[in-house]
Design brief:
Elements: H1 3-12, H2 21-47, H3 50-69, H4 74-94, H5 100-121, H6 125-134, H7 142-171, H8 173-178, H9 183-205, H10 210-224, H11 228-253, H12 257-281
């Protein structure tokens, strides 16, 4: 399915570590997921929703357990449960006086507790969960890479149509309403897209690091950017650099690919932090 793309990659970037087909698939997967996460991460940072994305990623723990228990593809059940958690938290935020972090914390705890109950009852499931905890981008299939490409396309279309409105909601939802923005509708759509990005990204970097894939490039971008538009593009650039450099280093060092990608992004954050301090002084 991806053979024509592999041939183009061989001609454009004939480097040794991209020789094997599994490395080419990993490269494409990280490219697609890296851009999707970096783009959505800008809004996650501005919405202060890092804990929200964390709740969705950890609900995947239960989704995978349910899928394995009932003989359903775990990727399907983790995506479905992620969407349900995203919609549930958004709904509760609208109809509860509790602080948002409290609502997310309760949902997060219930989802993880249910997963642990299932795993403790069926201990044989714990071995299968390991791949989802840490991610395994080197084992992605052609179909999964294609799904990630389609997800990236959906994210691009979504943000292209609604980025400014979503950014305004993040600043002040009451102001957004006075400007005619349908805040509730956009909140639900954003929750759905974020849930899809988080759950699909788990295959690449794992449940433990998927939130970092969203947050760290956006945090780097915030150190460098002076405007919302610049922050968006800086985040994507950092995400791409982290993905490519992390994959190459993990191949050379024989380390976990997802963790190496996040480590590179973290180093970039440390390097860009002094830039932010200089900009604030000026």
């Amino acid at each position: 399915m991806l053979d024509p793309i592999f041939q183009i990659m061989d001609s454009i970037a004939p480097v040794s570590w991209l020789g094997p087909e599994f490395m080419k698939r990993a490269f494409l997967a990280l490219l697609f997921i890296g851009v999707a996460c970096s783009a959505m991460g800008v809004l996650v940072v501005n919405f202060r929703m890092a804990f929200f994305s964390d709740a969705i990623s950890h609900s995947a723990f239960t989704g995978v357990a349910i899928g394995i228990l009932f003989g359903v593809n775990p990727m399907i059940t983790l995506v479905v449960l992620g969407l349900l958690v995203g919609f549930g938290v958004t709904r509760l935020k609208e109809h509860s006086d509790l602080p948002t972090d409290t609502i997310i914390g309760v949902t997060f705890s219930l989802a993880v507790a249910l997963g642990i109950v299932i795993i403790s009852a069926k201990r044989a499931l714990s071995r299968t969960l390991e791949a989802f905890l840490y991610g395994n981008v080197l084992a992605v299939s052609d179909v999964e890479v294609t799904m990630m490409a389609l997800l990236l396309l959906a994210v691009i279309v979504f943000l292209g149509l609604s980025y400014n409105r979503l950014f305004l909601i993040g600043i002040n939802d009451s102001l957004a309403q006075t400007r005619g923005v349908k805040v509730k509708v956009y909140n639900y759509i954003f929750a759905a897209v974020l849930a899809l990005v988080v759950t699909v990204s788990i295959r690449v970097v794992g449940m433990l690091l998927v939130t970092a894939m969203l947050i760290v490039p956006a945090a780097c971008a915030r150190n460098l950017a002076r405007s919302a538009g610049a922050m968006f593009w800086y985040s994507i650039i950092v995400g791409l650099i982290s993905a490519v450099a992390g994959l190459a280093l993990s191949f050379k060092l024989d380390t976990s690919t997802g963790a190496t990608v996040i480590l590179v992004a973290g180093i970039l954050f440390i390097l860009t932090y002094p830039v932010r301090m200089i900009m604030e002084r000026n």
